[in-house]
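RECORD TYPE: inverse folding
INPUT: structure tokens
STRUCTURE:
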């Protein structure tokens, strides 16, 4: 089975998702370093980025459901069996909202290295 469907929760509350949500796993990353006539590497930490496409639903308060300036648990569950948990995730940037037939918000989270179960 290949990864097809993603589910998510933020601060213990399920987040409904539309197709197209993405995540980039952060953590230690090796960076090439030129040393004389050879190439070696050094390690550096890189942030995770999770972009959730969330439908705009009548009666769901955006600013109190997706509070900025707060760190908390973000979970991404994949239908292929993996669950990724960022214990101190936070919303980054602004929350763009699109109207019309495909009304949605794209909520971007930042964090460190997730736990994978």
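DESIGNED SEQUENCE:
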């Amino acid at each position: 089975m290949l990864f097809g469907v993603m589910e998510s929760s933020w601060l213990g509350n399920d987040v409904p998702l539309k197709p197209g949500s993405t995540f980039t796993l952060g953590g230690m990353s090796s960076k090439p370093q030129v040393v004389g006539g050879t190439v070696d590497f050094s390690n550096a930490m890189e942030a995770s980025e999770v972009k959730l496409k969330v439908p705009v639903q009548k009666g769901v308060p955006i600013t109190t459901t997706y509070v900025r300036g707060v760190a908390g648990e973000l979970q991404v569950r994949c239908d292929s069996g993996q669950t990724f948990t960022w214990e101190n995730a936070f919303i980054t940037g602004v929350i763009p909202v699109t109207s019309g037939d495909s009304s949605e918000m794209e909520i971007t989270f930042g964090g460190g290295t997730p736990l994978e179960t």
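NOTES: The chain has a mean pLDDT of 94.
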